[in-house]
Structure formats: structure tokens, C-alpha cells
Records
---
Amino acid sequence: MTFWETITGSDLTREWKGFQARADALPDDHRAAWEQINAHLFPHADFTGRSLMPILDGVLGLLEETAADGRSAHEVLGDDLPGFCSALVGGEGARSHRDRWREQLNRNVARKLGRLGG
Amino acid sequence: MDDLTEMLKGTLEGCVLHIISSEETYGYAITRRLNELGFTDVAEGTVYTILVRLERNGLVQVTKRPSGLGPPRKFFALNDTGRQELATFWAKWEYLSSRIDKLKEGGR
């Protein structure tokens, strides 16, 4: 990764386009699963989304592999897509945007209360 | 047997380690092995998340091999750390199952 890419995220855009091209080549049910997985994973991304890229690459590989074998997305992923996604990003307790916002809010409230002498 | 998943969750990683320990293998083959054993609820996606975790924790050695059709397949073999982890898993399993058996047989 060059400095320019780090600053602009241009490599991410390029990589993302590559993912989309690969996803477009998938059968319908696999593509639908890909879109849902994306929706589930994005809250877990860091600010730029860079942390997600290797995970997404792997998932896309899994979908491509199973599509080539002629297996359905449901057969491969089962019923628990949210569970699958949280296991991917590191277990049930994976921190998401929401957790971080909640922490921030708690901190701010505690500080305000402290200042009021409550 | 239904609803085994919750109970199986904690041990599935050990089961996958054990399957990999006997020979280098890939996700779908591991899933099929588990299904044959009677764990019919285990989907490949579940095994996939375990394999990702094993790789991240440095317990396996990964090799990409071309497959007949489609993209290359990832094959997994245990490394030394993985073998240690597997030994630990079986030790823990022995402990857990002996205690639970004891409980069932009327001990207190």
C-alpha cells in the first residue's frame, strides 16, 4: 500500500470494484447472500473499512467455490446469517459502531454528571 | 438429534482440529465428515468461520490448490501449535465428560 492509497483509500475503491465484479458473476442466491452478509458486516468495519477487506475476500471465495460445486447458498450458510457474520468478525462480542457510540455516550454522560457534582 | 448446536458450539473447534489432524483437508470435506458423524445441522458456513479463526490464531498451515472447476481450494493442515491445541482440547474434554458422567451416575 502506498502513502497515497493510505490517505485516499483509492486502493479500497479499486478492491471494492473487484469484489463487485466477482459478486456479479455469482448465481442469484449466492449474490443475495453476499448482499446480506455485507449489510451485517458493515457495522463492524473500522473507519475506512480496511479491516473488512480480507474477511470479505474470504467470504466471496467461499461463495465462488460453493457456487462452482453447484451447492445452494442456503445449504452452505444455513439459517443463521447474523450468527455467521458475527463469528466471522470475531465472536458474539465483536465491537460494532453501535458499541462504540454507546461507550462514548456513557462516558459523556458520566463526565457531565461528574461536573454537576451529582 | 435436534438442538444440538448450542451444546456443540464450544467443542466444534476441537472437532475440526481433530479432523484436520489426521490428514490435510478442506472446508467442504470437513463439513461432510461432521454430517456423516450425525451432526447434520452443521453447515459449511459454520466450519468456514472456525477455519478462519484457526488460521487467524496460527494453528493451521494453509495451502491453496487448484480445484477441478471454480477457484482454487484452501487446504488445511495442523502445525505444531495446532497439535498442542488439539492435545489441550482432548484433555479438557476428558475432564468435562468424566465429571458429567460422574454426576449422572449419582455422585454429588
---
Amino acid sequence: MPVEWQPKIVGFACRWCTYAGADLAGTSRMQYPSSIRLVRVPCSGRVNPSFVIRAFQRGADGVLVAGCHPGDCHYTSGNLFTRRRYSLVQRFLGYMGIEPERFRVEWISAAEGARFAQVVKEMTRDIQALGPNRKMREEP
Amino acid sequence: MREHQTQVRKTAEDLMKTGKARLFIGYTEGLEAARPVAFFLKDPERAGALVLNEFCGAGLAKYVLDEAVSPDALSGEPLPPVAIVAKGCDALGLERLMADNRVPRDELYIIGIACHGIVDPGKVLEVTGEEPVSAQVEKDHVAVMTTRGSHRLAKAGCLMDKCLTCEDPTPRVYDVLLGDPVQEGPAGKRDFSGVTQVESLSPDERYEFWARQFQRCLRCFACRNVCPACNCSVCSLDEREPEWLSRSTDLPEQFMFHFTRAYHVAGRCVACGECQRACPVGIPLMLLNEKFMKDIRDLFGEPAPHRPSEVEPLGKFCPDDPEGWLKEAETA
């Protein structure tokens, strides 16, 4: 029986919401694919769009940027800037040819462990259907 | 344009003679008749070398950064301003620099030119096979004199790309305006047709398209260096620590470069088209800038995202902004 190909997903998780949400998913023993590698950031507003390109360059098959719901930002407005920024960046990545399944922005609160698990499951499934990412990728 | 050449020379001479300006930035003859170059006039006697015609398309805005330094460092005396010739698009560039606090308004003396469009010598060569020598933009066509004869050309066929989508033919800021204000650009409004064309391709085709464009990139940084919106004193693309961009010209680095350049001017681009004009390998950079412009217009309801404003679209937010990554994120 062949081993199923696992995508590599880089997740940028805000330390106040999504990272705690991922923690909750873990402590609650929720099952989700081990395809995601979380990078903890102080706020989703910290995620420079160049991070996303760099992740694709270095072999990520998908990238997730996740933070608090609008209105719940620990820094009041960080994620509201993020929302504007990534509304444009997500569309721009698509414009450059990255498939929409490979890049997602999600609002996941500290209480939403199940939501976190769900997003990782969905992304893994979608990217498995697409196969490995070759775009913008440096030769390994 | 040509009809104002005498006025420009006279204005320059007066300003320099009376000491009302410390430098006059305009155009002079280049190596070819249809390719005038920037000219920095300090000696009023040389004002006769200034030219102004239908080929003066290069933007001069960025040059003021090299020149506009406030009070004289030695004496502490404030210096007279820098005078600069500016068409509608150049004035937008100057507005950009002022909005970014790179140049104070009183450091500039702007000679505004109401513009009817600039002739692109490359396009004329393509259409007629001859080098243009002079041109006159008429109401519904352009009369071009070439080395071998004269031609009546359609505007779309011989004006610069930026002129075909121009919305500000008359400068919005100036100290003196030459010519009557022009209300309409030579060919109507920006319709983002180029962007829509790329959007209609499949993701793989889009990637192929950009890969083909970026493969030619020499990484000469001309696009960054001429751009009035790219005016940071230290550019992240030059940084060695952290090194966002390696010196290699492999395709992944080209994507990093072009993504970053376009993103850093998102919401700040004034659509002057200088990047595309300066690109030695003809990469359609405005297609990248216009994508951001189109999305800013659609998502955040900015009617004219190319006009510098108090706060940039990405420097502010509304509580009810749409989430542009959702399929149903509809236009504002």
C-alpha cells in the first residue's frame, strides 16, 4: 500500500488567538493532519507578504495566515490592517498563478480548536488534490 | 506642448536670473529628436537649450529627491526652491513625494503643463517603420513627421500606454500653468482591460505568462529607481540583513522581486507608467500595479486609487471592509 503524499503547509498563527486555538485542538486530542508547520507571530499584522513568497520559494505547498476575528485583535486594529492587506495579496498571488487552494487567510479564535483542525484538514485535502507546488519554488 | 517651449525657456531664464529658483529641471535634446532627456539648468544663459515637445514623456519627479534638501547646511539660510516642469502625471509623482513627506511643498516651484498626450517613438517606428522627428496631437488623431514623410496616426496606435488611460492630463498642483486646463485624457478612462485579460487565464497559464516576462528581467532596478512611489531612503530589496532578495536572477527570486516591488507601491502607485517606460526588457509592470489598483477600487471603493491622498488605502481600514479572499467578496 503506497504512502499517501503529504503536503507541507506553513501556518502563520497569531499568538493570541489562532496559536491558542491550535493548542486547544491539541489538548482536546482532536485529530488533524500533521501537514501544517506553525510559525507563531505576535499578530497576523506581523506577517509580511514576503514571508508568503519565501515560504513558497523554500518548498511550502500551501500557506495559511490566521489571526483573531475582526474586532477581537489584542492590539485593537492589527488584524483590520491584515484584512485589507491580504484581501489584495491573496488576489495578487492568484494573479501571479498560485492556485487559490494553496493560500488561505482564516480568523480562528482561541476557543475554536475544532475550526483550526477543520481548516488544516480542508487545506491538506485540497492541496493533495493539486499535488506538490512547483511555482516560485527554488530547486531543492 | 511644443507651443509652450518658448514660455518654458523664458520662465526658466527669469527664475534663474532673479534667484527665485536654485535649479530648473526640464528637458533638452537627446541623441535622437524623439528622445529628449532630463536637463538641469543652473545658468540662465543656457535656457535656450531647454526643449518641450510631444516626446517629453519621461517623468522628472524623482530627480527632486537628489536636489531638494532644505536649508543650506553651511549658512542655515533657506535656499530658493527647485523649479520643475511637470505634466499631469509628473505632478502626481510630485504629489506622491509630498504626501510621503520626502519633499516639502515650498521646496518646489512647479511649472505645470496641460498635456494632450505623449508620442511613443517606439510605437511610431512599429507602425510606420520610420523614426519620428516631430508630432502634433490633434483632436482625433496625431500628425507625425518622420525622417521620410508625414503620417496621420490613430491615438491608440502611437501615444504612450500611460496616456491612453490618463485621468489627470492637467496637473493638480502647480505654481504656474502653461496652456488651458485639459479635462479629458486623450483616450478616456482606465478600464483595466489588460488586467482582466490576465485574470481570464487559468492559474497555470498566468504563471507561465509571468514566468516568461520575469525571465527577461536583468534586475537593473530601473523600475524602482524611477518610481516616485518607491522613495524609501533604504530599500528592503537592497538589505543584506535580512536578505529578502538574493542577488541571483533565478525565477523564484524574480517573482520575489516583482511581487515585492508591486506590493510596496500598492495603493501608492500614481499610474505614471515610468517603471514600464524605463524597463529595458519591456516587462509590462503596469499590469502588476493596475491589478492592485483595480482591487483597491473594487474592494475598498476608492474611485481613483492612483491619486495620492492623506492616508493611503493600506494605511487605514474600515470596520466593515470585505474579506477579499472569499469568492463572494463583491465589489464595494
